[in-house]
Specification:
156 residues, 8-stranded antiparallel beta sheet, Alpha-D-Glucose-1,6-Bisphosphate, Chain A, domain 4, alpha+beta
């Protein structure tokens, strides 16, 4: 099991969860404010994701825009938005030491191989979020992570 992140694949829903020492309002800001998202996420929108409606996102400035529509905003606990053909549902749950961030990524291609690749990519993004929040994330080897997620999610 990859360290510090839980992951499951049920149908087309890949779910990852990680605990952070940050409070839920801080996590919410990193999840919804465009300048903060750019520090850790491939979802880099042209506006804050604090209200329902369309947005344009790019993974990098050189990439083609990805259609994104914010469907549900329940501050500071839940954000649901389309990202191309996929849907991302983010949930923040307070804990004694901070908050748990859970992502349910409903995949348009839910093959175990694609799920393992997606889990690896999000794991690395969640490491970047930890760094952006001021916590040192353990160094992760992407190839080793992919192997672990392939075994965990059934594509090995």
């Amino acid at each position: 099991m990859p360290e510090n992140t839980t992951a499951t694949l049920r149908g087309n829903a890949l779910t990852l969860a990680r605990d952070y020492a940050a409070q839920e309002d801080t996590l919410w800001n990193f999840l919804t404010e465009a300048p903060l998202l750019m520090q850790w996420s491939p979802v880099n929108p042209d506006r804050d994701l604090t209200t329902p409606g369309p947005a344009r996102t790019q993974e990098t400035p050189a990439d083609e825009p990805i259609d994104t529509t914010v469907h549900i905003v329940t501050q500071p606990q839940r954000l649901v938005h389309a990202w191309g053909d996929d849907t991302l549902e983010w949930t923040i749950t307070p804990t004694l030491d901070g908050a748990t961030l859970t992502l349910e990524h409903r995949l348009s291609d839910a093959s175990p191989t694609e799920a393992a690749r997606t889990a690896t990519a999000w794991h690395l993004c969640l490491d970047d979020l930890a760094e952006a929040l001021g916590t040192t994330a353990p160094a992760a080897d992407p190839d080793a992570l992919l192997d672990q997620y392939e075994q965990l999610l059934g594509s090995a």
